[in-house]
Amino acid sequence: MARQLDEQIVARFPVGRRLRVLDVGMGRGAQALRLARAGHQVTGLEKDATMIAAAREALAGQPEGIRERMRIIEGDGRDTGVHFLPGSFDVVLCHGVLMYVEEPDPLVAGLARMLAPGGLLSLLVRNGDALAMRPGLHGDWAGALAAFDTTARLPHPRTEADGETPVRFGPDVRADRLATLTATLAGIGAPLQSWYGVRVFTDTAADGAAPPDDVETLLAVEERAGRTDPYRGVAALLHLCGVRG
């Protein structure tokens, strides 16, 4: 997913430009730190105290220049208007957050308001069009059958924002459908420009499984599948990129 995000940034902003980035629900700060290392000015917004402590610990171990480019704010992603003025950021990330929000539309609309014209909104969501894949591949036929007609809360592992470390954040997560989010983004003035699949083949990997010796080949396969039909449509997660008009 980090490669997908970099592709979008390079395509939309001049090379070398220091971007203003907001990472809403930044978790442990993996993506925020990566972008700060790349030279961007990054603000991380997170409400979970444990995650904030982990992000601050990770930031404390960085060189001074990186620490100066990143700030961490405690707060809820639904309250971006309390902390920031509209149009304050060039890039807004919201990765693995919508799956925990019962009514995502107000949150997404608030994120779009934070973008300057031409700004990039990056969403990572659970794919509501492919919920039957994981239970079906595991032979859980009852679970697969139930998953066809719902986007409700069902057990699912997700990947931390660095795109590398599989972790569980609890079983109760909902999903979003591509068509629904496409309509939402169009309605808030940040229409969908590109979308990718994430974890097309690797979603069934056992928790804690060691990476294979040829991990670069694995990543190349996932990256290719994530941009190729029909594979991307059955990915466990979807990465949607909208651009503020």
TrEMBL record:
Cross-referenced Gene3D superfamilies: Vaccinia Virus protein VP39
InterPro entries recorded: Methyltransf_11, SAM-dependent_MTases_sf
GO terms for MF: methyltransferase activity
A Gene Ontology BP annotation from the UniProt entry: methylation
Methyltransferase type domain residues: 22-122
Record flagged with keyword Transferase: yes
Keywords: Methyltransferase, S-adenosyl-L-methionine, Transferase
Protein name, as recorded: Methyltransferase
